[in-house]
Amino acid sequence: MKEFTFLSQCTCFISCVALCQAVEPPNVYQIGNRISVGTMSYAVLNAKWTARLTDNQLMDSPPDAAFLILELQVTNIDLKPRTIPPFKLVDENGA
User: Fold this and answer.
1) pLDDT averaged per 10 residues in sequence order, the chain, 95 residues
2) Cβ 31 vs Cβ 2: under 8 Å
3) Residues 6 or more apart whose Cβ sits within 8 Å of residue 14
């Protein structure tokens, strides 16, 4: 089963970086696992690599990269309405 890493830019992470403290390596989660960060929970439901973002024949030039398409489920677990905070996907090398 493929593994993906989430590194949320939550308040505690931003403050750790701002204080120049050592940041622990990110946790690794499998597809389908639900994780909670602050007032949100996240799950990757599906993931696939593709060389195309569209089936449009007019945009059929080959790209110089592959695209990772993720199907995410994000749930607000707070009582207040919230927007999805920024987050990023991190590979096994931390990039």
Assistant:
1) 44 40 71 91 92 78 83 93 86 78
2) yes
3) none
